[in-house]
Each structure stands twice: as structure tokens, then as C-alpha cells.
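User: Quick sanity check before I run a bigger batch. Here is a single chain. Can you write out its predicted 3D structure?
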Amino acid sequence: MRDRHVVGARLAMSGTLLFDDDPPARVEWQAMTRKIFLDERPRVDQARRDVAAARRARAARDLG
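Assistant: Done. Predicted structure follows.
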């Protein structure tokens, strides 16, 4: 996920509503954003773990 998607997801999950001129559109956006974020989160977390492990392995190989 790109940073802007993460920001949107965080807002949808726990943001404070300041202004709401179109409640049905907000509810639709909030529901869709939460669904996508929660569906993709395990894959993103795994990808981050894989990258971190690869970096550790490369650093260990370069030092050793």
C-alpha cells in the first residue's frame, strides 16, 4: 500500500469527522476503505517482514 492509502485507511478506521456534507458517500467511502485496508493488511505486513529479513540476511552476508 502506498502511504496515501495508509493515511486514508487510518482516517477511515479511527479518524475524527470534522465535516460531513454527504453522509451516504462518506459511509460508502469509509466502508470500502476499511474493507480494502483490512483485506490487504496481512499481505502488506508479510511483505514488510520479508523485506526486513532479506535486508538482515544481506547485511549478515556482507559482514561475514
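The mean pLDDT is 87.

User: Great, the batch can go ahead then.
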